[in-house]
Amino acid sequence: MPGVISPPHPRRNVELLLLVLALGIGLGANLLGAIGTEQEITTAYWVQSGVLAAASLALHVVLRLRAPFADPYILPITVTLNGLGLAIIHRLETSNTLANATTQLVWTVVAMAMAGALLWFVRDHRLLRRWPYLFLALSAVLLVLPLLPGIGMTVNGARIWVNLGVGTFQPGEIAKITLAVFFAGYLSANRDLILLAGKKVGPLTFPRMRDLGPLVVAWLVALGVLVFQRDLGSALLFFGLFMAMLYIATSRASWILLGLGLIGLGAVLAFLFMPHVTARFDVWLNAFDRQIYERQFGGSLQVVEGVFGMASGGFMGTGLGAGSPWRVPLNHSDMILATIGEELGFVGLSAVLVLYLLLFTRIMRAALGARDAFGKVLAAGLAFTLAWQLFVVAGGVMLVIPMTGLTTPFLAAGGSSLLANWIIVGLVLRISHSARRPVVVDDMVNASGPGAGHQDPAKLVALEPHRRGAGRRGSARRAAVGGDRA
């Protein structure tokens, strides 16, 4: 067809091969856990692996049909992490019942189904930017739900759960996505105003007071979560997300300085006037103090035993099923990285962290390849959300920062977190498809031709960078294929 350069065929075969490898890793880890604990390999192991395989392959088919140009590496990496998490949780069962593993498997299927539904029904991610304030209102409702009497629940000192009758749910996990959509919509629509207006002080340009609204809202939301829900982890996650998206959208260091100033102010106020935050810092700074270690509630036993467990794992680990992770409270959720470090060692834990690094870089490549500002900011913000959450969790487990109670993405037990993170994967795959698909420019489009006044603006925007490049090579007309294909 004249005027169209056909791209290489999407590498779905690569994705399928990697997906089979990912499922094999999950199955192998599951079987090794059973052998290490000297348990009989029952049909439950094969059922778990079969259900995960069926759900993963179904999502792969949806990708082929609805987003064939999406990044072929994101789904296999995510399935690998999810499968490893299921295997570790299954291994940690202390009896013949499979309550935790079965619940996690059900949530995995539900989460993958939601990601597939998003890919199937949301044909263009830019539709989400039409209602930024609707997503802001939805975020407010989600964050307020745990505070309502009757349905709100307090677990381990934090009021972040709601009782649905058939189980519990953490609305804040979904709120991080809706807030990301709101900020991406707001910043992509007001970027020029934020960049051009402001007062210049030396090399820095500070925004006008009227443009500080989003930053103040971010600070108030994070502080409100910290005060009313007593959840340090979510407060750090929300504010980190806001600051990252502001910097991605504006590239202004002044926003980061303002954000750090607000973070510092909030941290000082929280440390001085919020006993639960003071206790977290006390545990972090004096974890090996005997009195703090033996404290009945809110002591340092969890983190100290986790550090000792990782130390006993050494370089290669004790082997799946051969360690003593039962010494660490919440070893299947908050401290699952400590379990991996003990039984898979430094090598295994490093391999898991490399998988996360690969996932973050693939999402960032999708952000860089996006052709619209909304997609760029949203994908980059979601990538930062996952990366920041992992840093906060790993930093708490390794005593680099205070423990916060966040869950490790895709690995740790927790249906709310698993659902939210798979929705993030679905959104990113949709953005990746839009970034990598070919831009078909009609052969008649010519900015200097007689029909220039009737051209589709979207086609002209897609064509313009390539027209400049074609001009340098002496070509008057060129159609382009945009996006990252690596």
UniProtKB/TrEMBL annotation:
Its main location: membrane. Coiled coil: none annotated. It comes from the Bacteria. It is found in: Membrane. It holds the Pfam family FTSW_RODA_SPOVE. Keywords: Cell shape, Membrane, Transmembrane, Transmembrane helix. Residues 477-486 have a biased composition (Low complexity). Residues 465-486 are annotated as: Disordered. InterPro entries: FtsW/RodA. The chain crosses the membrane at residues 16-37, 43-61, 73-92, 104-122, 134-154, 174-197, 209-226, 232-248, 255-274, 344-365, 377-401, 407-429. It is a multi-pass membrane protein. This is FtsW/RodA/SpoVE family cell cycle protein. It comes from Micrococcus lylae. The lineage of its organism: Bacteria, Bacillati, Actinomycetota, Actinomycetes, Micrococcales.
